[in-house]
Amino acid sequence: MSELVMRAEKLDAADELRGKRDGFVLDDVVYLDGNSLGALPAVVPGRVEDVVRRQWGELRIRSWEESGWWTAPERIGDRIAPLVGAAPGQIVVGDSTSVNVFKALVGAVRMAGEGRDEILVDATTFPTDGYIAESAARMTGRTLRPVAPADVPGALGGRTAAVLLNHVDYRTGRLHDLPALTAAVHEAGAYAVWDLCHSAGALPVGLDEHGVDLAVGCTYKYLNGGPGSPAYLYVRRELQDRFDSPLPGWNSHAEPFGMRGGYEPAPGALRGRVGTPDILSMLALEAALEVWDGVPVEAVRAKSLALTDFFLECVAAYVPEGRVECLTPVPHAERGSQIALRCDDAGDVMKRLVERGVVGDFRAPDVLRFGFTPLYVGFADVERAARVLAQTLG
Amino acid sequence: MSELVMRAEKLDAADELRGKRDGFVLDDVVYLDGNSLGALPAVVPGRVEDVVRRQWGELRIRSWEESGWWTAPERIGDRIAPLVGAAPGQIVVGDSTSVNVFKALVGAVRMAGEGRDEILVDATTFPTDGYIAESAARMTGRTLRPVAPADVPGALGGRTAAVLLNHVDYRTGRLHDLPALTAAVHEAGAYAVWDLCHSAGALPVGLDEHGVDLAVGCTYKYLNGGPGSPAYLYVRRELQDRFDSPLPGWNSHAEPFGMRGGYEPAPGALRGRVGTPDILSMLALEAALEVWDGVPVEAVRAKSLALTDFFLECVAAYVPEGRVECLTPVPHAERGSQIALRCDDAGDVMKRLVERGVVGDFRAPDVLRFGFTPLYVGFADVERAARVLAQTLG
C-alpha cells in the first residue's frame, strides 16, 4: 500500500466530520462536483414526498398557512444565516442567483444616491453576474467598469456607487479578501455586494462581522439544496429600510393580502421577496439544510483545506510535472474549496475521468474543476481521484 | 331529491371530461380553489420521487444533460403552448409571474422605442402586476397610467408604449376582450402584454391567432403545477429578435457554457430565460401537464361555462335574494372560470364554508371567490357548494 493511501486512511479515521457522509445518498463514485450540484441529503426524498402528497395533495390551499409555506422564504433564510455569519432577519430565499444579483445591485446603487455614477464588477466573475450588472447599470443610468478584484482598491473613488464581487472565483477557486475589500469599498463611501455561490457552506463568510452590505448566493452547491434550488438575498439590517427593490412583487408588500393598489414595502428582509415562493424546491432545501445541525463552519473549513492540501500533494506525487497547471492559489487565505487544474485537453480528460468514476467538471476552455465538500468527501476519495487523474492524463 | 340534485346527476353523467377527475388526488371536499392552487395530479408524486431519488440522487450532475434538465424551460413551454394557442418555440418556463411581468413589460417598452413614454396598466389588476409595472416604468423612464380595461381604447395614443392587461380579473372573474383590446393596442402602434394567470387552462386564449405580443402566466392555478410552480413568458416569434431582456442571465446567452464576458442573447424564446432552472418544481409541473393529453381547451371552456351557469342557478335557488351580490358578469363572453360573490362578512363566511368542506377563497375586503376547474370539478360538487353556502349564510 502506498504511503499516500495509508495517509488517507489515517486522515479519514481522525476526521470528525466523517459521520456526516451517512447523511447523503452516495455510491462508489468519487463525487467532486458538489461545487456545481451538491449530493442528495438522505432526509430530502421523504420530506419532498410529504410536501407533495400531504401538504399539497391533502391540505392543498390550507398549507400556505398550516404547513408554513408562506413564511418559508424568511424561515429558510434564517437557517442559512449562521452558515454565512448573519444574525436572523436579514436573508430571504427565493428566485435565482441572477435575479438576486439584479435586486442587490440595483438596491445598492439606489442607496448610494444620484451623485455616484459608476458600478465596479469583478472582471473575472461567473458571467451571469457581469451580464446582470450591465443591465443594472443600464437601467439605473450608471457606467459599468470591470475590474480584477485585486485592483478594486485602486479603482474606487467618489464616483463609485457599488461593487459586485465574488467571494470565491468559480473558475480558479481563488478566495478573495472579503474583509479588506469590503472595508475599502466602505472607505470610498460605496456599497459592497458579494456573491457567495462558491463560498457559502464551504468556509466562514462573516457577513455581519465584516459589515457586508448586500449578498447573494445559490443553494445547490455546498448547501445541497438540489438542482436549481432557490437562491438567497442578504440585506444588512441597518440598510433594510433603505432597500428599494427593482422587483417589488406582492410578496414584499407590507400587507400582501390587503390587495392594495399602492405599493408599500414590508419592513426587514421580507422586502427582498418578489412573487409566490417555489414551495417544492424551497422545502427540499429546508430539509437539506438539516445536515448542518451541529456542524460548525470552522470545522468544515479546516477539513476543506486539509482535503485540498492533500489533493495537491497527491497530484504532485502522481501526475508528471508540467502535465497540468494548478490555477488555485496555494496559500490557504487565498483558496476556496476547489482545485482548478489547467490542461489543453481538459474537456476530453474530464469525460474520461467521469467514465472512470471520478466526477469533477470542465469549464471552457481548458479547466478541470474539482470541488471538495467536507460533509461527504473523504481523504481516500481524494487519493483515488488524484490517482485516476494521473492514469487518465497518462 | 331536489330538482337541482337530479339535474347535477344528469349533467355529471353526460360530462365528457368526467373521467379526468381520476387523474387527481381528491377527497370528499368540494375544492373550488383551483384558481389559487390546483389539486395534485396523481402522476406527480411518482415523478417527483424519480427526479429526487434517481435523477438527482444517482445521476447527479449528469442529469443536466441525461435527464433533460437543461432544456426543461423550453420543453415545458412547448407543452403549455397549445393550451394558450401558441405554436412551439415561443414560451419558456421559469421564475415567478412577477419577474416575468418585469421582463415582458420592459421588453415591450424597449420594442416601442424612445418616442413612446407611457405605459398603461389595468387599474383593476392583481396588485403585483401594478407594482412591477410601476418599477418597469421608473426604470425605463416612462410614466405609468392605470386605466380600467374597458377604457383602454380611449386612453391609447401616440405616447403609448405598452399596455399590461389581465385576461381574467382575479377578483371579479370578468373575462376581458383579448382580441379587441389587442387590436386596439396595435392600432395605436403599441405593444400588448397579457397576464394569463386566471385564464390559461380554463378557456381558449389564442395568443398567436390574436397577435398578442408578450404574455405571462402562472402554472399553479388551472395548470395544477403545484405551490409556487414556475411561471412562463411568451414572446411572439416575430418579436423575439427584438426582445431585449432586463434580466439577461447566463441561461439566455447564445452560448451559456462558453463562459464569455460579453453578453450575446440566444435566438428565439430562450432569450426569456434568466438563471438556473428550478428543476424539482419544473419537472413536477411537466408531469402535471400530462393530464391535458387529449383534452381540447374548447371542451374545458364549455364545461367551465356549464359549471358556472349551474352554480349561479343553484345560488339563485338556495340563497335568499340580496344576501350576496354576484360580481362576475353573466354573459359568457365576459366570464372566466370563477364566480365572485360579494357580501360584507365574506371573511367569516369563507372560514365557515371551509369548515363545512367547501373550499373557495376570500379576497379582501368582501369577496368570496369560487374557482371551477373543469378537469376535476363536477356538477354535484357545484350543487353541494351552493347548498352549503346557503346554509352558511343562513
TrEMBL record, chains A, B:
InterPro entries named among the record's database cross-references: Kynureninase, PyrdxlP-dep_Trfase, PyrdxlP-dep_Trfase_major, PyrdxlP-dep_Trfase_small
Cofactor names: pyridoxal 5'-phosphate
Record-listed pyridoxal 5'-phosphate binding positions: 97-98, 126-129, 195, 198, 220, 250, 276
Catalysed reactions listed for this entry: 3-hydroxy-L-kynurenine + H2O = 3-hydroxyanthranilate + L-alanine + H(+); L-kynurenine + H2O = anthranilate + L-alanine + H(+)
Keywords (A to Z) from UniProt: Hydrolase, Pyridine nucleotide biosynthesis, Pyridoxal phosphate
EC number from the UniProt entry: 3.7.1.3
EC top class, as a word: hydrolase
Recorded GO MF terms: kynureninase activity
Pathway listed: Amino-acid degradation; L-kynurenine degradation; L-alanine and anthranilate from L-kynurenine: step 1/1; Cofactor biosynthesis; NAD(+) biosynthesis; quinolinate from L-kynurenine: step 2/3
HAMAP family according to UniProt: Kynureninase (MF_01970)
PANTHER family: KYNURENINASE
Function description: Catalyzes the cleavage of L-kynurenine (L-Kyn) and L-3-hydroxykynurenine (L-3OHKyn) into anthranilic acid (AA) and 3-hydroxyanthranilic acid (3-OHAA), respectively.
NCBIfam families for the chain: kynureninase
Subunit and partners: Homodimer.
Protein name, UniProt field: Kynureninase
Organism: Streptomyces africanus
Gene (UniProt): kynU
